[in-house]
Each structure stands twice: as structure tokens, then as C-alpha cells.
Amino acid sequence: MKRTNAIRAYEEALRYIPGGVNSPVRALKSVGELPLFIQKAKGATLTDVDGNRFTDFCLSWGVFILGHSHPSVNKAARSAVAHGASYGIPSLPETALARLVNLRVPSMEKVRFVSSGTEAVMSAVRLARGFTRRNLIVKFDGCYHGHADHLLVSAGSGVAGLSRASSAGVPDVFAACTVSLPFNDAEAVERVFRERGEDVAAVVVEPVPANMGVVLPEGDFLPFLRRITAQHGALLIFDEVITGFRLSAGGAQALLGVRPDLTTLGKIVGGGFPAAAFGGRSDVMALLAPEGPVYQAGTLSGNPVAMSAGAKTLQILSRDGYYAKLEKKADRFFSELSDVASSKGARLNRIGSMFTLFFTKGEVRSFADAQKADQSRFGEFFRYMLANNVYLSPSQLEANFLSSAHSERALRRFIALMKDFS
Ligand SMILES: *Cc1c(COP(=O)(O)O)cnc(C)c1O
Question: Cα–Cα distance between 414 and 159 in angstroms, integer?
């Protein structure tokens, strides 16, 4: 595979951008590769600066459920930009998308738009603290909620509360306001509420974690979180930045039948442009400025180009049978893939149209399980697939995605390649 232009692009980027990338995983370090430099993308295909083509199973981290460069979405964005890219003054596309979000995700009685998932979760957490007048946030190991200080904590040693930040530059006093617990561990949650229930502002959770690889919530775990937060006057925040409009038209909460107090959206909601949202109970959202005392703002928030692309995406997704069709394709693919995977010492975790192949023998139901997976074996698999023009999400601890643009042929090829992987 020719990589000369990519290597030159990388060397040039390294001169001006730390690590040559604007988001760390893109450097492909954990899989022992050099970064790709993409020229264009269409449907399920990426084309790099050397003219190599890859079938994309990362899809900008799940954004492109309709495939890249969907003609109607691009058209909506183009006609929006023709009227000006940003005003810093309200415009109609903001209300139009808020209305659509409320229609699909009824728990989001009020919605506010921001520019990234990080901002959405950070703001939802601030709001929960303002509403409850409490400080403590409970999260789960391996769940990712963006890179705001209070949420960059993953390795709490349970109730002892010895929370440690996952990044340099996060003061211990911030990390101390967050307790991180094992996912699917109701007892650990119960213990924290028993000991510190009056301090807990919110439990924030990816209802189906995708950022430690796909891990499924067990039977009663989410309903239990709903009950225990309600009992203790804490809020339940579902971070649906990945699962929103991915697992169903109403996200994970519609699929799993649990109604959170606040929800965050991102990725799909902007149709490929920088937009994200948080929203939920009217009485909670009423505390946001300018109605209430919790401050939150953004120069490009509710950007009309992103709002228009997002609205067009949601309209297409709500066409009859969209998700049923995508899932049928996914089901066929996964049922074959699961067998091939086990013959290669890997386990398939999947739900809807997202999946992770964990190179491990045991079940993966928590971050601790996911971390047992063989990262170097995954690295071999990633490089093998890349050499065969398939781009996977570039880490063992990430999710892969299908789109309506993936052809049956591309999926058959994935399976055939995995069969030949040694
Ligand atoms: C991607 C993601 C975020 C962060 O969103 P950004 O737009 O990258 O800031 C937050 N939460 C979850 C669950 C995500 O998948």
C-alpha cells in the first residue's frame, strides 16, 4: 500500500500540531500504525491522500449512520451555509431541531445545543449540581463522558473514594468530586448511596457503554439506577452521545425503557457538523441561564449549518423501517461474525448496529474484563484489516459501527478477511 503522501502529511503536521493530530486516538499509536490522512469520504468508503480506499467501520466514531456525504444532508448544509454560517443570534433551525429531538426523545422536554459532547456532559453535570445543590458525581469505570476535568476520572477504588484522575492537569480536588464504580455493579452503587447518598448530585452513565468497547447493561442495572437516584433525590444522566439515534429513533432509553432526568446527545445529532445537546426535565432545565442561575453559553451553539444537517439526518432516520432494516443487516452480519470471531479467540459484543471484537476468552461485562483483552493481538488484527483496506475503530477499547451505506458485499468481505486472519 502506497503511503508516501500520508507520511509526508504526517511529518508536516508534526511540525505544527502536537503529535500531528487534533484528537489523540487518531495517531493510531495503540495499534502500532501511522495516522491516516483522509482526502474524501462517501458512503462507507474513505479515500486517503495516497488514493487508498478503505471500508470505514468507525464512521467518525459513529456519526455517519447514513454513511459519509449523504446527498440530502450535504444539500441541507449547503443551503444553510448559503445564508451565512453563524449569527450569534437565534435562528429558526435551532427550534426546528429542538422540536425534532423532543419528539424522538420525549424525556428531553427542553433541549439546549452546544458544540461538542464534552460540553454537553459538562453542562448537564453543572446543571445537576445546581439543581440538587450537591457536589458528588457517580460515574462508571471505562465510561467516557468527554474531557471535562470532573469526568476524567475512571479508576476509583470503590467506596473508599480514592478517585484518581485519568489525566495530568486535573487537580485532585476536582477528581475528589467524582466517584467511579464498576459498570453493572449494583452493590457498589448501593454502598455509595448508603454512605454518601446526601452528597450525590447525579449518576452519569452511558446506558450502553461504547467507550470501553461495547458492553451491555445487565437485566436490572439501568432500572436500578433509576430507582436509587430517585430515592435519594439525585439525578440520572444518560450520556447518549453515541447511543442517541444509533440504537433506536429514541436512543438507548427508548430501547431499554428507562427515562433519565437529563440526556446528552452528540455525534449523530449534528449530521457530521459540530453540534451536541443536553436536555431533560423542564423543572431542571429551568435553572439554566437566562431563566435560572446555572450559567452556560457558546459562541457557535445552535449553529445553523449544524442544526440543518442534524435535522435532515433525523428526518431520514425517522422514515418507516429505517432502524429495522439496519438491524436486519446487522443481525445477519453479527451472527456470522460471532462464529468466525470465536474461532479466532475473539468475543463479539454487539447491540443494534454497534459492535466490538474483544480478543479475550472471558465475557466482557465491565471495564476490568475489557482490559483483559489482548491489545497487541487487536493491534495485529487492526493492521491486517487496514492492509486489506478495512478501517476499524483504532483501539481495542472502542466501538465499531455499521451504516445504511455498508453493502452486503463489504460485510461479507469483512467476514472472509477475519476467517483468513492468523
Ligand atoms: C464522543 C463522546 C463524548 C464526547 O463528545 P465530543 O464531541 O468528542 O466532545 C461524550 N460522551 C460519549 C458517550 C461519547 O461517546
Answer: 43
